[in-house]
Design goal:
Length: 277
């Protein structure tokens, strides 16, 4: 939001001394940990609904997960992580934030057949997240027909990183499959961005990722590529890259594989001042 330095940004050897970051919330993952719903069986489970955070920035819903009934997310019991779709901007934590969620299990032809998985609202404050740098905090969310875990962390002196992914070159025929995750700072928890996405041509993926990272901390990109049609036992090619978080500016990082060139651009920004009454 504020990638360009302002006139009052006076840089020194360590960077901008005006915009030193702020307290921000980073959500790492959402995981289905138990199902008590009747007649679910071992089949993949389809979930839909939303999870959103309201903070002091503008009090609107900032969606972390948002799926309609016509496009549910399919959860595999062998890999029960739910791929997050947001947030759309950084989540400020100068004051407690409100976490809202209404996620359901799709069954049958109509909504009357569906089951309520979790449905509640809860506040998140700094006192609930005592380990901002060492690890993420996991909260258990219990519901009528199961439970989920959400992993999150409070980051002090944090800035916003907005990431865009572009496929600039595809070599060979058949395309490739891409998976991408990242880590922020010294916290080992992964943030899954893409999971086995099939790419066949040049494109700019219509999704942006917004992350929180401590200023001058390291954002680690973990990209895996596997050529389409490769043998099942063949391991994907993995590439790790690290970027140092800054208060302002942009960095463009080409990641070159045998079958493709993938361009990752990251805009660094401080959160803007909150809206006042």
């Amino acid at each position: 939001m504020l990638s360009d330095p302002t006139t009052d940004c006076r840089p020194n050897w360590s960077g901008c001394i005006v915009h030193s970051g702020s307290s921000m919330l980073q959500i790492f993952s959402l995981k289905l940990v138990s199902i008590t719903a009747p007649a679910i069986g071992d089949d993949p489970i389809q979930v839909y609904g939303f999870m959103a955070v309201r903070d002091h920035m503008d009090c609107l819903r900032n969606y972390v997960f948002n799926r309609g009934r016509d496009k549910p997310f399919v959860v595999s019991l062998s890999d029960p992580f739910i791929l997050l779709s947001g947030p759309k901007r950084g989540i400020g934590m100068e004051t407690p934030a409100l976490l809202e969620y209404d996620i359901r299990i799709k069954r049958g032809d109509g909504e009357d057949d569906d089951l309520q998985l979790i449905d509640r609202a809860a506040t998140i404050s700094e006192t609930e997240l005592p380990l901002p740098y060492a690890q993420a905090y996991t909260r258990w969310i219990a519901g009528d027909y199961g439970a989920m875990n959400i992993s999150l962390a409070l980051l002090h002196n944090a800035i916003e990183a907005t990431m865009h992914i572009q496929i600039t070159e595809v070599r060979g025929s058949g395309g490739f499959d891409m998976s991408m995750a990242c880590r922020v700072g010294q916290i080992p928890n992964e943030i899954k961005l893409f999971e086995s996405v099939a790419i066949a041509k040049l494109c700019q993926l219509n999704k942006r990722f917004v992350l929180a990272i401590v200023k001058r901390g390291i954002l680690v990109l973990d990209l895996k590529v596997k050529r389409s049609g490769a043998l099942e036992e063949e391991e994907p090619v993995r590439m790790l890259r690290g970027l140092k978080g800054k208060a302002h500016g942009q960095v463009i990082l080409p990641m070159i594989f045998d079958c493709a060139t993938i361009l990752v651009s990251v805009h660094w920004s401080n959160l803007p001042a909150p809206m006042l009454d």
